[in-house]
What we know:
alpha+beta, disordered N terminus, single chain, about 25% helix, about 180 residues, three-stranded antiparallel sheet
Amino acid sequence: MAVETGGVLEVGIDDGxxxxxxxxxxxxxxxxxxxxxxxxxxxxxxxxxxxxxADEAARATWDRGDTAAPTLAKALPPVDRSKxxxxxxxxxxxxxxxxxxxxxQKDYVVLCPEERAKGYVRPVRRSYIHRPCGTLTTMGLSxxxxxxxxxxxxxxxxxxxxxxxxxxxxxxxEGTTEQVGS
Length: 182
């Protein structure tokens, strides 16, 4: 729910090295300015908390099936799947599927950074559960952003406990019942 405010939020640093948030709707001080002062540590903790809550709100929106989330997807340019590269940043190679001793591939195909930067149709989520074994696996950010930009990009993913790849219908996003890649 949007809340209309009477002014603009401003963030700055005071002479003591503290982070200051100014907003006209906060109780004004003797200078007529409403503000909250945070130490750098408190500001970092608040930023992390805000990011976590923003992610939680986005997931809840998607999980409820609200129409606001799909409307955003319509405003984005279509995915260009030709803009692919390797997770390592190298151009795509035919041997990227060669297996390492830990069961992972030598490298993974992702959408290139400029394609991922065009925006996401789903929330960026890094962790998922392999339903057959119940294990949580966390992927790198570039892989997670590729899923968020183009949920159908991959046909399977890796389970760190089983040390193998399986079809996406065996995985759900952490904290949801939503299938990975949907």
